[in-house]
Specification:
Strand order of the largest sheet: 6-7-8-3-9-10-12-11
Mean pLDDT: 90
Low-confidence stretches: 1-10
Number of helices: 9
CATH architecture of the largest domain: 3-Layer(aba) Sandwich
Structural class: alpha/beta
Helix content: 25-40%
CATH superfamily of the largest domain: P-loop containing nucleotide triphosphate hydrolases
CATH class of the largest domain: Alpha Beta
Number of domains: 2
Order of helices and strands: EEEHEEHEHHHEHEHEEHHEE
Number of strands: 12
Strand content: 15-25%
Largest sheet: 8 strands, mixed
Shape: globular
Radius of gyration: 21 Å
Distance between the termini: 20 Å
CATH topology of the largest domain: Rossmann fold
């Protein structure tokens, strides 16, 4: 059993608890809505990294932004460190955001091109009125040094840096307020493979040094395996499987997870992995299929899959799956 499995039910170990999160976007000129996130529940334990994976458009980034209330959820409950995030007013939410930060996907678009790097990294300190001008300057230099950049770079502008350096600047800005939770929204997807490894290793080092908790959003399954403590798999607005990283990659139960993992390249020409090729396109989130949302592309779907909307059920310690075709699912207890 993974050492964290027994902690999931221990309330004081949960930094984040999300229950039945929903986010629908209205379609202009129509009564329809895009069901970007549709009844998602999970928890994040203190000091761990929860990887959130799935195809583009499955709702991963929307979950992260709802968590921070960068966009307002349609329904559901979000608890952070014992506080109900959705009930906070603007003033209280501003204070809470000192403890919840985000690393954006595009390291260039997330940095103001008209601001020098020192001002970008120090801006959170100015907004929250932390320290004197001299103290903020010292803090900026310390942060730049910690992410592997020369403190003298503070006088430069974002366009003078490479993609990996810009992402390091974004990480430095994120750390300025000593947050407890960092939502890393595909932080390496826009970088070269060699630079990806550097940024991921940096994130891991910073987690050890500062005791950070990560929600790591990505469609790069190999990266997620490397950095995550647990992994949640999303498909069309729903979490279909969640487990410890080692358990999920060794023993995936949901057919969608199995198909995703079969696509990971094996760095050994003598080894061959059976590739599961999914048929058809991802259905529209405006009008998702009845029953199981994956059934229209599932290689093992049966007639019942169109009638039963499977909820997450725990089949073994810390391993939950939403699929009626998985042996033991019908007998397993429903997840909280």
């Amino acid at each position: 059993m993974d050492a964290l499995d027994g902690l999931v039910s221990t309330t004081h170990q949960q930094l984040v608890k999300v229950r039945h999160l929903v986010k629908h976007f209205p379609v202009e000129g129509s009564d329809d809505v895009v069901r970007a996130v549709d009844d998602v529940s999970f928890e994040i334990l203190r000091g761990e990294t929860l990887g959130l994976v799935g195809e583009s458009g499955c709702g991963k980034s929307t979950v992260g932004r709802c968590l921070l209330r960068l966009i307002e959820p349609t329904a559901g409950q979000i608890d952070f460190d014992g506080r109900n995030v959705r009930s906070l007013n603007r003033s209280d939410l501003r204070e809470l955001r000192r403890e919840m930060q985000i690393v954006f996907q595009d390291p260039y678009a997330s940095l103001n091109p008209r601001m020098r790097v020192g001002d970008i990294v120090g801006e959170p300190l100015v907004i929250h009125k932390i320290g004197t001008k001299k103290e903020r300057g010292e803090r900026v230099g310390e942060l730049l040094r910690r992410v592997g950049l020369d403190p003298d770079y503070r006088r430069r502008y974002p366009h003078e840096f490479s993609g990996g350096q810009r992402q390091r600047i974004g990480v430095a800005r994120t750390l300025a307020l000593n947050p407890k939770l960092v939502v890393a929204d595909e932080p390496v997807s826009a970088l070269d493979v060699s630079v990806q490894a550097q940024v991921v290793n940096l994130l891991q080092d910073l987690q050890q040094e500062f005791g950070l908790t990560y929600l790591f959003i990505s469609h790069g399954l190999a990266v997620v395996e490397h950095i995550s403590t647990r992994v949640a798999v999303m498909y069309l607005g729903r979490i279909v499987e969640i487990a410890g990283a080692a358990d999920l990659y060794l023993r995936p139960l949901h057919p969608y997870t199995q198909a995703l993992l079969s696509a990971i390249p094996v760095p050994d020409p003598k080894r061959k992995r059976e590739r599961i090729v999914l048929q058809g396109d991802v259905p529209t989130p405006i009008n998702p299929p009845s029953g199981c949302r994956f059934r229209t592309r599932c290689p093992i779907a049966i007639d019942e899959c169109a009638r039963i909307d499977p909820e997450l059920r725990e089949l073994s310690a810390g391993h939950r799956v939403a699929c009626i075709r998985v042996p033991g699912w019908n007998e397993a207890p429903k997840a909280e």
